[in-house]
Amino acid sequence: MSSPAEGSIHRRGRRFKPDRDVEEWHGKYLPYDLVKEFLIALVVVVLLVVALAVVFSSPDETPVTVKSWSTANPVDFAQTAITELDGTSGTATYGPPYNSTAGASQSIGFFSPESWFGVHHPINTANDYVISPLKTLPGQPGLDAAIATYNSASPNQQASWTAAYEKAVAHATSEGGTLKVPAGPYGPVGEMIGSLTSMARSGALDGALLSSRQFYGTDYTKPLLFIADGTYLSDLAQQQHLTGDQWGMMNETGNYPGQAWLWLYTLGYQIPPMNSSSNGDLQVWAIMMGLTVVLVFVPFIPGLRSIPRLSRVYRLIWRQHYREISRQTLDAGSVAAATTAPHLGDSASP
Amino acid sequence: MTVETDSVSEVPVDVAADLPEDADQWTAKLRHAAVEALPPQRLMPDRQPAYVASWIYVFGVLTLAALAVVIVTGSVLSIFGPTWWHVSSTGLFVNSLHLWSVEVFFFAMVVHLWGKFFMAAWRGRRRATWITGVVSFVVSVGAAFTGYLSQQNFDSQWISTQAKDGINSTGAGAIFNVTNFGQMLMWHIMLLPLVVVALVGLHVLLVRRRGVVPPFDLPNQHEVVVDPGNLTTATAANLEDQS
Hints:
The complex is a heterodimer.
Chain A: H1 4-7, E1 10-11, E2 14-15, E3 29-31, H2 34-56, H3 66-72, H4 74-86, H5 113-117, H6 125-135, H7 141-152, H8 155-169, E4 173-175, E5 178-180, H9 189-202, H10 204-208, H11 221-229, H12 232-239, H13 263-268, H14 280-296, H15 307-311, H16 314-317, H17 319-338, H18 345-348
Antiparallel strand pairs in A: 1-2, 4-5
Chain B: H1 26-37, H2 40-43, E1 47-49, H3 58-80, H4 84-87, H5 89-118, H6 127-149, H7 154-169, H8 181-210
Helix pairs in contact in B: 3-5, 5-6, 6-8
């Protein structure tokens, strides 16, 4: 072992840097039972977790289904359904990875990974959310005729009908759970959305929206995005303090702690320009990725890696050590001044 | 050295000797490298430098203990399947254990991380230890996130429909679809736990390899007597090989 005096000057042609290098420890080694420490920690954690689980349990709010949504708020369902049919819903205008809506991808300058990756989970809202599910309903000649009329109409005619229906459904009411839409020049669209609402309330639409055409399915992308296009889900989330402006990413339903470790990520959405930018998601992610890289490579970054030394928080962490050093220095000084007897050896031995 | 191999059914432990003819064997080379990097006394030391005396050191081992509880409770949930905890009071209790152990895990890990930051624990060829620790934290965030997405309740519905915007904006949504329950469950119970356990294992081995970082400013060390009891646990040479 070399002495600190040697190490603190040069070794292998390099200068000692206190934020990168350390002196070798030449001091005492004390008994330390790692296995015992781990087992004690394990017992403590188990007892703590059991106590928390017994006292607080865990939340499990019932999920929203298309059936529960359309039953609880058929007007919101119909208002959402017409935006899926006319292509103005959040999902219909989302862009990649669901569709190729022009200008919908988020970007920072030329950096637009969303558009680079393109469409990977294609969703045609008119077809996937309205027309195709309606076609699965058997024995409804009136509905079949309405779908045929709509499909064979020109785009302008379709737009005219859907615009009229959107205007009418804005004043719709729900009487006894039944959708009541004022009359208007919306052609076959009234029959289609009315049938879709009935289908949703029966529960049949939930199954029809699943992406999988196999018996087993686990991909809920289509029904989830459809539900999220309405206001029912977000209203429930608002009540559970889960929306973005409520720091929802780090919250949990009820009063349970959620992903508190996402506080910095959530903070990004609360401050300008991210809180109002159409590219806010990408901006927050870019900042978080940048900060993560900085944290990973702190040991290599001059200035940042000096913060621990300059902040002197380490004096608190190792206060016992520094107290011991001070005491030994004082003792050594006293002994050296008084006598030539051996110094410190006795106190430092185990 | 003579080794009898023809009359015994069990190979003696010390048959793994440094026989000259085995010098180029990959297994022998790997064993030598492993033992050289982490001899038993360094892998499982019974002594630590005297400066390892602070409550902050407890949070590293608390993180490991909480991770063990997370894995055990998650394994129980896996045995019975994703629906079990919604319909069984026992399942709900196990889910509660899983949730709270995750909360304890993150609390302990974050305190551990910041404690190590203020110790500048990357000093003395410990950069890889720091990096594996931070990356473990980041991957753990992903593991917990996919867990929230796999709950099959209102919370997972809301989180997935909101989080998709951030994920999609990075382009990752093309292959990492947060609204695909099956995909998120696989990431949560298979891929990410594997990575977390591997990273944490590597992190712990690096801690044992390099030892616990010494304090700043070690004045008058030449006047402090070295404990001769276990020099193999002494921290390694401390100047970087490279700038």
